[in-house]
Design brief:
This is Diguanylate cyclase/phosphodiesterase. The chain folds into 3 domains: 126 residues, no CATH class; 150 residues, Alpha-Beta Plaits (2-Layer Sandwich), CATH 3.30.70; 249 residues, TIM Barrel (Alpha-Beta Barrel), CATH 3.20.20. The chain is 54% helix and 16% strand.
Length: 586
């Protein structure tokens, strides 16, 4: 058949070919575009069959172009071979010698070109995937490193001030102590706390407080840039001084920090001046640990605070041991109460008129299993600081009333027992209930109990304690002001307070022993006269000599207490003492 006829027929074959391969692969082209491409390949196949000599490259090129056009599945190749074998010669009316042999060879070259192109494409795709995977992994690793760096920074830095936090400071401090080659070094820690920072937060708000913390952090960083400055939390900062040559190096850092903090600062429109307290610890790294250093610095910071603030304090091992011993002693009080280690001694309050024992003051003692008998001044202040004085005071009250209930007295007139009330006890809302309960359980008549209150407590403007004492006074319980004359007493208050007795401080009585002590004697005479005008009795404390007793008697003092009349001890010897003859005052 002629060439004109051949040129007319490829379109029909291409449409049949396109229909056969449609759906075998994803083809990113329209149907018309597919038919146009396949018609071009059809003409090349026809050319290959007629070529002399037979050209294998054309079939291979056709197979490769099919793969490039994304006809790249086994089914697509199979249908292509089938369509070419069954329809190419017929649809194009090709007359070719040895057509079957040529057709077989053509199909083989198409398949070969197809397979090679598919292999190359697969390898290319695999290489692209490999490269993409490598790039993705590299990007992921970079992102991971960046994330780890961000997380590390967030985990080791304070979000408000940007300074290193406790975690990073502890790491650096640990390295300064334990890193190789540091065994002969010395290290210093300055623990800084702003003074009265709570006032800023309470009066100006937390936003201003936070701004002030940022300002302080920036100043510390600028002034101490060569040292690690960290914020531990709140208004607490800490400075690490590595490789010190001695204590002076750490002290210089502390003084620089105090100077940086106390400069006036304009914060959110407020001009603020703050100060700081610093605890300093400086020692060899050998034999210490981060925990020991921080604990010592914290304790020393409290010393600086207790001394008034706006200063630094240097760690003192001896003082620290004493503080730890005090803490251990206060912590042992509850268990000591449970084990019955406390007991009471008594000191008599003796009439200056006839020598009778009018009452006895209960004085608590601690029979410590390791330290022996402890006097009140070694543990009462600790109990007051920790609040344990409430429980201890309740025990003293109950035990004193129980023992006083067993005391004999001439004609049934036994001495009263005098018990000291701490400030915390006096401010308890259930004080009246407690005293009533103790009197009820022990059977002690109310008039045989005297409660001693310090002068400063009685001058308090708080109404409730005074009201409680009035109720107890109405029950018959006696109330005395202890150590009268040592506080800031407004004498006019005595007119309305529920008080029965003034116990004049021993400082005035001590002056009676010296020659020419007329001033102390006139003061005592005035106090006695005032008390008697208010229908109060007067007991002088600290009476140690007969001469003091005589002079007190001469000015009209009612009773005395002190070593002259008896030292603290068990109640029985005082109760059995026969009153000495006492001349009446002139």
């Amino acid at each position: 058949m002629g060439d004109d006829a051949t040129r007319c027929r490829p379109g029909a074959f291409a449409r049949a070919w396109a229909k056969a391969v449609s759906g075998t692969s994803y083809l990113p082209m329209a149907q018309a575009q597919l038919e146009e491409m396949l018609q071009r390949l059809t003409e090349r196949l026809a050319q290959a069959l007629r070529a002399e000599p037979f050209d294998l490259r054309i079939g291979q090129q056709v197979g490769a172009e099919l793969v490039q056009a994304h006809i790249a599945s086994a089914e697509g190749l199979g249908r292509t071979v089938e369509v070419i074998q069954l329809r190419l010669v017929r649809d194009l009316d090709l007359v070719v010698d040895d057509v079957e042999d040529r057709m077989a060879r053509l199909l083989a070259t198409v398949a070969t070109g197809y397979a090679r192109a598919l292999r190359d494409r697969t390898l290319d795709e695999q290489e692209s995937i490999r490269r993409a995977a490598m790039m993705a992994r590299a990007q992921a690793e970079r992102a991971l490193r960046d994330s780890e760096a961000r997380f590390r920074h967030q985990a080791t830095h304070d979000p408000l001030t940007g300074l290193p936090n406790r975690t990073l400071f502890t790491e650096r401090l640990t390295d300064a102590i334990t890193a190789p080659g540091r065994g002969a070094d010395r290290v210093g820690v300055c623990f800084l706390d702003l003074d009265r920072f709570k006032v800023v937060n309470d009066s100006l708000g937390h936003q201003v407080g936070d701004s002030l913390l940022v300002t302080v952090a920036q100043r510390l960083h600028r002034a101490l840039g060569e040292h690690l400055v960290a914020r531990l939390g709140g208004d607490e900062f800490v400075i690490l001084v590595e490789r010190t040559a001695g204590t002076d190096d750490a002290v210089k850092v502390a003084e620089a920090a105090l100077a940086a903090v106390r400069e006036p600062a304009l914060v959110d429109g407020h001009e603020l001046t703050v100060s700081a307290s610093i605890g300093i610890v400086e020692r060899p790294v050998a034999g210490t640990s981060p925990m020991d250093l921080m604990r010592a610095a914290d304790s020393t910071l409290h010393w600086a605070k207790a001394a008034g603030g706006a200063r630094w304090s240097l760690f003192d091992a001896d003082r620290n041991r004493r503080e730890l011993a005090r803490y251990a002693l206060s912590a042992a009080i509850p268990a000591a109460l449970d084990r019955g280690e406390f007991y009471l001694d008594y000191q008599p309050l003796t009439s200056l008129r006839d020598g009778r024992v009018l009452g006895m003051e209960a004085l608590v003692r601690w029979r410590h299993p390791e330290l022996g008998v402890l006097r009140p001044d070694s543990f009462i202040p600790l109990a007051e600081e920790t609040g344990l004085i409430v429980r201890l005071g309740s025990w003293v009250l109950a035990e004193a009333c129980r023992e006083a209930g067993t005391w004999p007295g001439p004609d049934g007139d036994a001495p009263f027992v005098s018990v000291n009330l701490a400030v915390r006890q006096l401010h308890r809302t259930d004080l009246v209930t407690e005293v009533r309960g103790v009197l009820g359980r022990t059977g002690l008549p109310p008039h045989r109990l005297q409660l001693e209150i310090t002068e400063s407590t009685m001058m308090s403007t708080v109404v409730e304690p005074v009201r409680a004492l009035r109720v107890l006074g109405d029950l018959g319980v006696r109330v005395a002001i202890d150590d009268f004359g040592t506080g800031y007493c407004n004498l006019a208050y005595l007119r309305d307070l529920p008080v029965d007795e003034l116990k004049v401080a021993g400082e005035f009585v001590t002056g009676l022993r010296a020659p020419g002590s007329g001033t102390d004697e006139r003061i005592l005479a005035s106090l006695v006269s005032l008390a008697h005008a208010l229908d109060l009795t007067v007991t002088a404390e600290g009476v140690e000599t007969a001469d003091q007793a005589d002079r007190l008697r001469a000015i009209g003092c009612d009773a005395g207490q002190g070593w002259h009349f008896g030292r603290p001890g068990p109640a029985a010897p005082h109760l059995g003492r026969v009153p000495a003859h006492v001349d009446a005052a002139p």
